[in-house]
Design brief:
It is a single chain. The protein is α+β, with helices and mostly antiparallel strands. The chain contains four helices and four strands, in the order αααββββα. The strands form two sheets. A two-stranded antiparallel sheet has the order 1-4. The longest helix has 17 residues.
């Protein structure tokens, strides 16, 4: 992987295959299909992105198992929170 690929977060085929395999393994341990997990991941990204700027390329998403319980774990690096806060605070509240 070249310096530019690392800098701009391009995934190589091994990284993509690893991510797909992790989704398949999660599916085997839960009742969620890989498509449902991917949709959940996309929804999380969209929701968090409305409030802060995130680094999607460095995001980690998965399920943890502890005996009979399961946990969804998302590690989402935040690039910047201040610009979104200023933009949202400058909006006027809607009249009812």
């Amino acid at each position: 992987m070249s310096f530019l690929d690392k800098l701009f977060g391009r995934k190589n085929s091994a990284d993509s295959a690893k991510e797909r395999l992790q989704l398949v393994l999660i599916h085997d341990r839960t009742d969620l299909t890989p498509a449902e997990l991917e949709s959940l991941r996309d929804d999380l990204i969209a929701t968090v992105s409305r409030h802060v700027e995130i680094d999607v390329t460095a995001m980690q998403f998965g399920m943890e198992h502890d005996g009979r319980s399961q946990r969804l774990v998302a590690d989402i690096p935040i690039k910047s929170a201040s610009h979104r806060r200023r933009a949202s605070s400058s909006r006027k509240p809607k009249a009812r």
